[in-house]
Design a protein that fits this description.
With about 325 residues, the chain is α/β, with parallel strands linked by helices. It has ten helices and 15 strands. Strands 14-13-12-11-7-10-9-8-15 form a nine-stranded mixed beta sheet, covered by helices on one side. A six-stranded parallel beta sheet has the order 3-2-1-4-5-6, with helices on both faces.
Length: about 325
């Protein structure tokens, strides 16, 4: 049976949309790219070249949503724009996939989740690590109690932000620096795998001469008594990423390097991922939910914990003291 055709619009045509999402859309084979929106026409033209044909272009997303019959939209725009763009798309009755973070405000994140539930639409944050087989299995192990009672986590990610340019360095557009950007993946993976909820945050950040944070050390006390650190280092050249989860009965350690999973260890032994766990992508899962009525869909409530922790970290830096996480 042929897959249901999905009518898709894109908001934001930059490198991430072109390099990550367009190939996944093409791989699906039955998604109709109806229209694209981006204030920079040259970005849209570059995307259409990647797509292989011209589609209607709009400099503004409102006009695009108003003039086209769509089933869903993908949003890959500066972080501070996500809320308004996703809200309007949901109000139009569309399913929405948003690049991370969902929003830069816990209030706005909570509002979008509630709106998606009210509209009975699917809302996804494109955290691709949550669709890697090792991460899926790790979450399963934690939920089954393989580590016992969780006592602490140590997570970090490094990346070269020295040469970063554009909107990511503009606080009004980005909402923050590396901790809000690449760090959002780290925070999301840590919270999604463990199920921990942050209760209090104490953070230190160094802008390294930029207008946004480049390095961050974020200490967290979680509900239930676990503690941890989530750190981002933006002036280290290679990408390196580790998540260590410690419990009363064991420990689980992830290592990624240059964006590839290098090792997953359970009590210092390599983890064998069951063949029943199939690796996928946020895009593939999103299209599947639309076609089969949401089988396996879960509202992205963990993204609210990500927003709350991130918000508390920036507030802690501003106030120079520990901050209770907003509820």
């Amino acid at each position: 049976m042929a897959k249901k055709k999905i009518r898709l619009g894109l908001i934001g045509c930059g490198g991430n949309m072109r390099g990550a999402h367009v190939p996944r859309i093409q791989a699906d084979g039955n998604v109709d790219l109806v229209c694209v929106a981006d204030p920079a026409e040259e970005q849209a033209q570059a995307l259409m070249e990647k797509w292989g044909r011209l589609v209607p272009y709009y400099p503004g997303f409102r006009q695009m949503l108003r003039e086209n019959e769509l089933d869903a939209v993908f949003i890959s725009s500066p972080h501070s724009m996500h809320y308004e763009q996703a809200r309007l798309a949901l109000e139009k009755g569309l399913h929405v996939l948003v690049e991370k973070p969902l929003t830069i405000s816990s209030k706005h994140t909570k509002a979008l989740i509630a709106l998606a539930e009210k509209q009975e639409r699917f809302l996804m944050v494109s955290y691709q690590r949550n669709y890697y087989a090792p991460h899926v299995y790790a979450r399963e192990l934690v939920q089954k109690g393989a580590l016992g009672e969780l006592r602490g986590v140590v997570s970090y990610v490094t990346q070269n932000w020295v040469g970063v340019k554009g909107w990511r360095l503009v606080p009004e557009l980005s909402g923050g620096g590396m901790f809000m950007d690449t760090g959002s993946h780290l925070v999301a993976s840590t919270l999604w795998i463990t199920g921990l909820e942050p209760a209090e945050v104490s953070a230190f950040m160094d802008n390294a001469g930029k207008a946004v944070d480049i390095n961050a050390v974020v200490n967290v006390r979680f509900k239930g008594g676990a503690v941890g650190t989530l750190n981002t280092l933006g002036n280290a050249r290679p990408h390196d990423e580790r998540i260590a989860i410690h419990g009363s009965e064991g420990c689980l350690v992830f290592h990624m390097h240059q964006w590839r999973i290098k090792a997953v260890l359970l009590n210092d032994e390599p983890v064998q991922i069951p063949s029943r766990i199939k690796e996928t992508s946020p895009d593939e899962a999103f299209f599947r939910w639309i076609r089969d009525g949401g089988k396996g869909y879960a509202s992205p409530h963990f993204a609210l914990q990500v927003a709350r922790l991130s918000e508390a970290a920036y507030k802690s830096v501003k106030l120079k003291r520990p901050v209770k996480v907003a509820r």
